[in-house]
Amino acid sequence: MPEKTPPGHFHILYFASASTFIGKTAETFPAPINLEDLYDYLEGKYPGIKEKVLNSCAVTLNLHYVDLQDVGAHDRESFPRIVKEGDEVGIIPPVSSG
Amino acid sequence: MAQSRLTSIASLESTIASLEQNLRQLKNDLETLKAQDRDQQASVQDVVPDLTDNTLDGNQITPPSLGLEEYRRYGRQMILPGFGLPGQLKLKHAKVLIVGAGGLGCPAAVYLAGAGIGTIGLVDGDTVELSNLHRQIIHASDKIGTKKVESATSYLRRLNPKPAYIEHPYHLTPTNALDVFHNYDVILDCTDHPTSRYLISDAAQLCRKMLITASATKTDGQLMSLCHNWDNQPCYRCIFPKPPSSENVQSCSESGILGPAVGVMGTLMAVEAIKHIMQFGAYNPDGEFYWESSPALTPTLLLYSAFENVPFRTTYRTKQRKDCALCSSNPSITRQSLESGSMDYEVFCGVRVPINILPDHQRISAQTFNDQVRNGSKCITLDDEKESPCKSTSNKSYILLDVREPQDFAMCSIAGSVNLPFSLIQKAKAKQDPEQRAEPSDKPETDPLRKLQGLLHDIPHVNKYFVCRYGNDSQLAVRYFLDLLDEGKRKSASVDEEDGMAEDNRVIWDIEGGLRAWSKVDPTFPEY
What we know:
The structure holds 2 protein chains of 2 kinds.
Chain A: E1 9-14, H1 16-22, E2 26-30, E3 33-34, H2 35-45, H3 49-52, E4 58-61, E5 64-66, E6 82-83, E7 88-92
Parallel strand pairs in A: 1-7
Antiparallel strand pairs in A: 1-2, 3-6, 4-5, 4-7
Chain B: H1 2-40, E1 55-56, E2 59-60, H2 68-78, H3 84-93, E3 95-99, H4 105-115, E4 119-123, H5 148-159, E5 164-168, H6 177-182, E6 186-189, H7 194-207, E7 210-217, E8 220-227, H8 236-239, H9 252-255, H10 259-280, E9 281-283, E10 289-291, E11 300-305, E12 312-316, H11 335-339, H12 345-349, E13 363-364, H13 366-374, E14 378-379, H14 382-387, E15 397-402, H15 406-411, E16 418-419, H16 422-432, H17 448-458, E17 463-467, H18 473-491, E18 508-511, H19 514-521
Parallel strand pairs in B: 3-4, 3-6, 4-5, 6-7, 13-18, 14-15, 15-16, 15-17, 17-18
Antiparallel strand pairs in B: 1-2, 7-8, 8-11, 9-10, 11-12
């Protein structure tokens, strides 16, 4: 069973170089937060992470890819842009090794 | 005597290389002839007539060609629901290209060959090395030095001689990718670098080939199928429009990789290929493979974290990105831009090349360090200096700082060296950025910046040598400390004799080529 998220928090998962940079594979943060503000929030916690990691990452919300750029594949009005209590965010850098 | 022996060795190696080249050509010729023979032998005696109703509009179609030996070989998978003889024949008529005969390509190739894929191509310009063998399990100790494609096909032919194996013993480039991909139905990206990832994705989309791409690093992996054989499918650039920053691009030799973790991803690639061929592939009476109409599939990205409590996660990928450089309605990447060679993937990915950022007088070769420093000076640690501080360089003491991470340092290190992980230097640099907020929880004893400043302050007159694995990070470390010294001098209002930081004590050097170079000076030092 995955670790239970404390009340009023959301779960964030870090993969590959994101987890290497931060030194963790997961943690929880207070909810709610706008997805657009997520990168700046992480930058405040982990200086340098935007330029070194986040700018090339894919982001998922409850296992669904979300586009944080202005021009994206999703209709902004219909796709949720707020991370709520109990949600799970994934930070997925591209992995090239093999 | 020694010289004539060296000459003989070189001569033999040259002769062997030439003979191996001839052998490869002969094997390729043999494969071509066998494939022609198979086509002609379609109605040979051991073909079992198909007992199912295979009429089309009332006319009998050509009996399928599956020999008695093939029934025995593939029987266990043919009896799976939905598989049967038609499924096996789909595999037999399919052509799969595996780009990269490494950690991903090896397990993928083995399972695809074992399953009876009719034509398997392998692309790789590398040779087998000892450090490959913990994960590239198709190769063997007696194949070290052999071309990987040759090593791979020799194993695969022994496993299953039925498929046609096509060797492409060279690296994929923008100018050859489209030609290579043209003759195949499915492409497997088993490479290990972002430049090849983007190239393969671009070429597969432009050729309209199904692409199965996977990757692995440390104990993590990713997998997705990009179905460019159908319309309106997202591409690699839709998911990852920007390449990773070059300092995050680490090879397996730099970051480490767990053999079975990459093996899992390669095996899953084989499953994906077989699944798609089985479920959506078909073949015409002439034996040509083709894809049936596009199914309503939701693109997925599989994430694997081997050492986590929940190792597998499937995420649902986007549809096509409206501004995608490759697959949007207004792409900037076209067949012509690829074929003309104007696409520069290394510039796009910001490839990290060996750096050379220090002036010559700040560097020392491994040999000179051994001959003039280690054999003529006293190696100290930080604790030694604190107990009996020296004020002059005339006692010729030095400290050797190894900037690799602690797990590397614990594996092997030069006797007397002190570990100063590069990650500590990076944390200190981040803290110095005026835009970063101060961490209120940082205590002086854990603050990385203060620790490093202390290093300069406590032993100002001791010669400091920096070493790392390959000679890149040590240059960055030297550069960092030189900048700290310059900043210290700028802040000092006057020279303070007791504060060594104010003096010009550029007694900081980088050992060129790092421990790799050191292992040539000291052959007992392990290379890894």
